Every structure is written in structure tokens, then in C-alpha cells.
């Protein structure tokens, strides 16, 4: 099993629908992150969590919310999806210092029509 | 975090060494150089990191110049599966907020 598992891998949804992307990890890491990737824009940070009770907005949090259900689970929700949220979404984890890099999931390709 | 500059693309023949350069002239004394790669549409993968000494692991070697203003990632025997975008990132350790800033990277194409 992968260290960081994202579900679903692909999703097509309609404008205005609520959708949740889920992430679970077996690394035992405290810190979890949600990134979004768009062509030509690199990865941008949406939300990050240092532990279950510590959740912070990243650079593009508008239109998104998150829930850290447990140390190992961090979900991203789009309350009312819009077409410009069509992107590739990645969950990542790191240990407290992040000294040995981040571990990323395989991504969720979301299309909002 | 210091900004990095990488060439947009490079080619390499399979079996040859791939040498990917990165300039980070504004790096500060406590900042490390990290390398990640992203194979098409997969999640970025950590490769290696270093402070000032050369580093080697099972994936690659990292050569950092003495003035630390540039570095080179070396894949000693490139394979077709090494075709990916490679990102050079500079960041400090133990910072309160560990944001990774991915630039545009270098697109490495390994050909038969």
C-alpha cells in the first residue's frame, strides 16, 4: 500500500456540487498538506495541518475547506464546485521538521463541468 | 526561501549521466537545497537534499559548489523512467511553516 493514499483518483462533478477529496497516510507524520496543480502554475498550497487541532490556510484557500479527522486522515472539500477548480490535487505529509522531504500522494484529477 | 533558477528542459541519452543544474545565488547560510521530481501527473517525489557537502543516495548525487550559489543533481545512469520534471528547492530546516515553493523546474527527457 502507498504511504499516502488519495481517493478518488479521478472525479468529474457538476458546478455547484459539494465534493470531498480524501487523504490517508501510513507514515505516522504529524503534518499534512493539500496542494493544487494547474498547467504552467506549479503547485500551490491550499491548506495545511500541523496536527489534529491545528489547521491553517494556505495561499489559495478560498472555496475550499478541510477536516483533519485523525492524525492519519486529512480531507479537502469543495463546498460548491466551480469550473476553475478543475485541477490536479495532491495531498502530502511531512514529519515535524520536514528534514527528509515531503511524501506526496498520487493525486486526484478533478474536473468541474 | 531563496529563489532558484533552472533550465526549462534538458535531454539525455539512456545510460548516460544526466546533470541538472540549479542556481540559488541568494541562498542563506541555514538553507538546504532539496530536489524533487514529478513524473507525468504523479505526485512529486523527494530525491535528495544537502547543505554544503556533496550527498549521494540510491537515486542520485547532489553536488553543491563551495560558495553554495549553485548545485547539480546527477543521475549517474539515466533510464527512460527518469523522464520527469525536476525541481530544485531551497528552504531552511526547522522553520515554523514548512511551505514548499515549486518553481517551473527542468523537464528532463531521456531518450533511447
Describe the structure.
The complex is a heterodimer of chains A (113) and B (112). Chain A is mostly beta strands and 113 residues long. Chain A contains no helices and 11 strands. Chain A has strands spanning 4-7, 10-13, 19-25, 31-38, 42-51, 54-57, 64-70, 73-78, 87-94, 103-104, 108-112. Chain A is globular and about 40 Å long. By secondary structure, chain B is an all-beta fold. Chain B is 0% helix and 46% strand. In chain B, strands 1-9-8-3-4 form a 5-stranded mixed beta sheet, with no helix packed on it. A 4-stranded antiparallel beta sheet of chain B has the order 2-7-6-5, with no helix packed on it. Chain B is globular. Classes of the chains: A mainly beta (113), B mainly beta (112). The A-B interface holds A 4, 31, 40, 42-43, 45, 48, 56, 58, 88, 90, 92, 94, 97-107, 109 and B 34, 36, 41-46, 49, 93-94, 97-100, 102-105.
- Share of helical residues of chain A: under 10%
Helix content of chain B: under 10%
Task: Outline the low-pLDDT stretches of chain A.
Answer: none
Largest sheet of chain A: 7 strands, mixed
Cα Rg of chain A = 13 Å
Mean residue pLDDT of chain A = 92
Q: Point out poorly predicted stretches of chain B.
A: none
Q: Reading side by side through the largest sheet of chain B, how are the strands ordered?
A: 1-9-8-3-4
Quaternary class: heterodimer
**Average residue-wise pLDDT of chain B:** 90
Number of helices of chain B: 0
Q: How many helical elements of chain A?
A: 0
Q: What integer value in Å does the Rg of chain B equal? A: 13 Å
E-strand count of chain A: 11
Anisotropy-based shape of chain A = globular
Q: So what's the overall shape of chain B?
A: globular
Largest interface: A-B, 25 and 19 residues
Distance between the termini of chain A: 32 Å
What's the end-to-end separation of chain B, in Å? 37 Å
Beta-strand percent range of chain B: over 45%
Amino acid at each position: 500500500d502507498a504511504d499516502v493514499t488519495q481517493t478518488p483518483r479521478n472525479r468529474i462533478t457538476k458546478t455547484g456540487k459539494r465534493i470531498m477529496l480524501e487523504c490517508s497516510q501510513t507514515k505516522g507524520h504529524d503534518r499534512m498538506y493539500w496542494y493544487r496543480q494547474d498547467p504552467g502554475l506549479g503547485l500551490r498550497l491550499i491548506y495545511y495541518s500541523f496536527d489534529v487541532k491545528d489547521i491553517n490556510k494556505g495561499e489559495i484557500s478560498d472555496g475550499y475547506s478541510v477536516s483533519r479527522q485523525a492524525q492519519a486522515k486529512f480531507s479537502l472539500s469543495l463546498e460548491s464546485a466551480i469550473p476553475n477548480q478543475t485541477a490536479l490535487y495532491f495531498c502530502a505529509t511531512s514529519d515535524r521538521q520536514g528534514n527528509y522531504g515531503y511524501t506526496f500522494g498520487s493525486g486526484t484529477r478533478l474536473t468541474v463541468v | 526561501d531563496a529563489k532558484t533558477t533552472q533550465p526549462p528542459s534538458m535531454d539525455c541519452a539512456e545510460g548516460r549521466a544526466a546533470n541538472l543544474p540549479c542556481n540559488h545565488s541568494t541562498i542563506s547560510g541555514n538553507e538546504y537545497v532539496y530536489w524533487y521530481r514529478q513524473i507525468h501527473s504523479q505526485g512529486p517525489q523527494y530525491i535528495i537534499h544537502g547543505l554544503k557537502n556533496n550527498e549521494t543516495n540510491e537515486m542520485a548525487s547532489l553536488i553543491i559548489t563551495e560558495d553554495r550559489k549553485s548545485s547539480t543533481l546527477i543521475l549517474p545512469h539515466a533510464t527512460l523512467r527518469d523522464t520527469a520534471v525536476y525541481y530544485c528547492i531551497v528552504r531552511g530546516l526547522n522553520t515554523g511553516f514548512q511551505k514548499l515553493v515549486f518553481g517551473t523546474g527542468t523537464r528532463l527527457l531521456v531518450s533511447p
